[in-house]
Design brief:
The protein has helices spanning 31-36, 42-52, 54-67, 69-72, 83-112, 114-132, 138-166, 172-181, 183-197, 208-227, 234-239, 243-261, 283-293, 295-326, 334-358, 361-384, 390-417, 424-451, 456-480, 489-492, and strands spanning 19-21, 26-29, 273-276. By secondary structure, the protein is mainly α. A three-stranded antiparallel sheet has the order 1-2-3, with no helix packed on it. 71% of the residues lie in helices and 2% in strands. The radius of gyration is 23 Å and the shape is globular. It has 20 helices and three strands. Helix 3 (54-67) packs parallel to helix 9 (183-197), helix 5 (83-112) runs antiparallel to helix 6 (114-132) and helix 9 (183-197) runs antiparallel to helix 15.
Length: 505
């Protein structure tokens, strides 16, 4: 993404290294301002590729399992499990694992650093996914899905915090949305892969689904190799008294940018911030920060997460069942329809992401949530009237999710921006876990329970529940959303250790 520094080439004052004040544990630093002023460079691409690709893995995981539910339940699959167990229990167990992993690894991420944890969480995912391929019974499959989710949930906390702390403020919205939206690249890959792997002319009934899990392992190993070169967050380093290491990371980024653009960087704007090093924070301190210091932001984060988690987990795990049950689509062909939905989902954040930085967070988040809710109500009405086919149903859902995907991605962006640095990973984990536990576990259970009844009215009700939650979340954003576009993280929420905290809104 070309974003060269504006202005003519000129010599400017180089910012001083972060300085510690002996005896009082205070560090004075302009590291955040220096990171925010950097033009886009290959240094940023390294971060995006190394960290952002985790969402592709998640999309691959849930799509393959959803599309292979019927095959797993067939006689001769090599595993004793039913379609309902795959689309309800296994889906809920996966989400429960993700919630648990987010909380556990989120807590460690704020204590031990972003880099250590995003290596560990990916390793957990790789092992669990590889072992899933050897499942022979339902309980073992559920166990593997729990730990696969455990690793993925940890990734969300470690990676969202690292990305937002490394990406310049002026493009943070669009980059975060596109990265979160890349989930659907994985979903498309999973959909197309399932078409081939479900073809019994190519793979035996008990082999194709096992090979599907190998795709995630191979892709994850490649990401692991790239991720080794991603730096630790300088913001995390200086809050933990490691000012010299933070300076080294930023100086390296500045060197790469100067070499790439062939000119000096623009001046650093604003005054340095002063932060007192803090020890590890307990859950009590984090809870007080979230609930007492920022109660409106807490309501906002929960609303956004619950709405999108219900809608997305329900559809992701259950759309193939709708196609086969109501439109007689062969199980081996559901991947084609899901691939179309996946493309629409990725195009939403890709095409709308820039507007979250220019038009602003509040109008765009509210608009995408409410807009997707209204479109889903329309889809429910058409389905109830029997006016849809498999093709037109997929077209309707593609339109709904074009908007909903941008909105859902902005939920992660929102909670990673509006809380203090020292609690960022844990706050992401908290909102993801609570929102997903409410919407992500209940969504597949309720949605698939209604869809599996075979009654059109029950499926219509499932659509309307998802539409209502998205619409309500959009209204909450419209009332109490935070104008975070193009603002530094420190101006949105002063670090807990700030000696002179900035005023927040």
């Amino acid at each position: 993404m070309a974003d060269p520094a504006k202005g003519t080439e000129r010599a400017v004052r180089q910012p001083p290294p972060a300085q510690g004040r002996p005896g009082d544990g205070v560090i004075e630093t302009d590291v955040p301002a220096r990171l925010d002023r950097l033009p886009w460079s290959r240094w940023h691409w390294r971060i995006v590729i190394g960290l952002g690709t985790v969402w592709i893995l998640d999309g691959l995981e849930v799509t393959i399992v959803g599309n292979m539910a019927a095959r797993l339940a067939q006689s001769g699959s090599g595993i004793a499990i039913s379609t309902t167990q795959v689309t309800t229990i296994a889906a809920a167990v996966y989400v429960a694992g993700a919630c648990s992993g987010a909380l556990f690894f989120g807590w460690l991420t704020d204590r031990l650093g972003r880099k250590k944890l995003f290596m560990v969480t990916l390793a957990v995912y790789l092992v669990a996914t590889a072992v899933t391929a050897f499942s022979w019974t339902a309980w073992f499959f559920f166990l593997c899905r729990f730990f696969t989710g455990f690793g993925i949930g940890g990734e969300y906390a470690a990676i969202n915090s690292a990305i937002d702390e490394l990406i310049p403020a002026r493009v943070r919205g669009r980059i975060d949305l596109v990265i979160n939206g890349s989930f659907w690249i994985g979903a498309a890959m999973g959909a197309f892969a399932s078409i081939a792997l479900l073809n019994t002319a190519l793979f035996a009934t008990d082999l194709g689904w096992r090979l599907a899990f190998g795709i995630g392992v191979v892709f994850g190993l490649v990401i692991l190799l790239v991720r080794r070169h991603v730096p630790e967050s300088p913001r995390w380093l200086f809050t933990h008294g490691r000012a010299e290491e933070a300076e080294e990371v930023v100086a390296e980024a500045e060197r790469i940018v100067r070499e790439e653009y062939g000119r000096e960087l623009p001046p650093v704007e604003g005054e340095p911030i002063r932060i007192r090093e803090r020890g590890p924070l307990g859950f009590g301190t984090i809870a007080r920060t979230v609930v007492t210091r920022y109660p409106r932001r807490t309501v906002l984060g929960l609303s956004l997460f619950i709405g999108q988690a219900f809608l997305y987990n329900a559809v992701t795990f259950g759309y193939a069942v709708i196609l086969t049950k109501y439109f007689a689509v062969p199980e081996g062909d559901t991947g084609y329809y899901f691939a179309v939905i996946a493309v629409g989902n990725f195009l939403g954040p890709l095409l709308l992401g820039g507007l979250f930085d220019s038009v602003g967070r509040k109008p765009m988040i509210a608009g995408t949530y409410i807009g997707s809710g209204v479109l889903l109500f329309g889809t429910a009405l058409l389905f109830q009237q029997g006016s849809l086919s498999a093709v037109t149903m997929t077209a309707c859902w593609t339109a709904v999710l074009f908007l909903a995907s941008a909105g859902a991605s902005s939920a992660y962006l929102t909670v990673s921006e509006i809380f203090p640095l020292e609690t960022r990973a844990m706050c992401i984990a908290f909102f993801y876990a609570v929102g997903t536990a409410v919407g992500g576990i209940s969504g597949p259970l309720l949605f698939n329970g209604l869809v599996s009844s075979g009654k059109v009215s029950d499926t219509t009700l499932a659509f309307c529940i998802g539409a209502t939650l998205m619409t309500l979340a959009g209204l909450v954003e419209a009332v109490i959303g935070v104008k975070a576009e193009r603002r530094s993280l420190e101006s949105l929420a002063a670090p807990l250790g700030a000696v002179e905290p900035t005023r927040t809104t």
